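User: Reviewer 2 asked us to show a designed sequence for the structure in our supplementary figure. I'm pasting the structure tokens here. Could you produce the per-position amino acids so we can include them in the response letter?
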């Protein structure tokens, strides 16, 4: 009897281990895609800040970020997006599953977790196909407060944001807050 249980356990583990290894490979690949996207976006934002400050950097998020998203998505085979519980653009409003994950991130942060470490992955069925989904929290850095901070955001920045994003809710953050999340998906 013990032998049969042991064999069943080994067989079950043998099936689960490759699945877990495959998921870990997808997590690693998703992180690389996010890093590629974030590096390109950050480079453009730094350049814009040097050339014209926060008002100039807003144009990067408005004009260049979607192009970077499309480029990295096309070259990687992953669908890339950003979302937030307080989105700047309504197009970045969270889907129900993204909202749930973001709320879990917030709960973990409240319990003491470092936002830089917060991520989530799963495999779901969408339109009859298996899809790997991954989310990584975006912590608010000091430089982010130029456009995402509270009362300290300069009036010219506020005016530019209002003109581009009439439904903007992405303000009032403090350094270390979870500003949003990167979302990447691919069909398996």
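Assistant: Here is a per-position design you can include in the supplement:
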């Amino acid at each position: 009897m013990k032998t049969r249980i042991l064999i069943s356990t080994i067989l079950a583990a043998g099936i689960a281990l490759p699945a877990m290894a495959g998921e870990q490979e997808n997590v690693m690949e998703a992180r690389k895609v996010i890093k590629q996207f974030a590096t390109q976006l950050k480079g453009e934002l730094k350049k814009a800040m040097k050339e014209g400050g926060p008002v100039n950097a807003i144009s990067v998020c408005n004009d260049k970020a979607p192009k970077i998203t499309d480029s990295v998505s096309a070259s990687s085979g992953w669908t890339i997006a950003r979302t937030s519980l307080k989105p700047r653009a309504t197009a970045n409003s969270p889907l129900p599953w993204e909202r749930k994950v973001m709320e879990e991130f917030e709960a973990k942060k409240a319990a003491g977790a470092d936002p830089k470490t917060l991520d989530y992955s799963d495999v779901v069925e969408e339109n009859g196909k298996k899809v790997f989904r991954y989310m990584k929290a975006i912590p608010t850095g000091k430089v982010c407060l130029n456009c995402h901070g509270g009362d300290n955001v300069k009036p010219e920045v506020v005016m530019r944001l209002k003109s581009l994003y009439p439904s903007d809710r992405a303000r009032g953050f403090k350094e270390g807050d979870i500003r949003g999340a990167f979302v990447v998906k691919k069909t398996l």
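For the response letter, you might also mention the following. Strands lie at 79-83, 119-126, 129-139, 178-187. Residues 88 and 179 are 10 Å apart (CA to CA).
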